[in-house]
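quick one, 85 residues, struct below
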Amino acid sequence: MQAWTNVAAALSVAEMGLEDIVKATTMLKHAGDVGAYRAARDAFFGNTPKSAAHLLTGDMVRPEILVEVEVVARKPPETVLRCSL
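---
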């Protein structure tokens, strides 16, 4: 699923991965897509449970968008990047 591929790419820029996600919120346009969405999500996460919320929106700002994913990720304290100016 392109949405999760995009999430993985964004996390990679921050030197994080899908395992660093602590919560995900998904907005779906069509209720009939819930099963396919869950299958695609599970393909990325396997059996790893994540805190998740699913919302049915009915409409998106751009009509061609069928799913939107928002995540909160946390980097473990021992790998926090430090910057000195």
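DSSP finds two helices and three strands in the chain.
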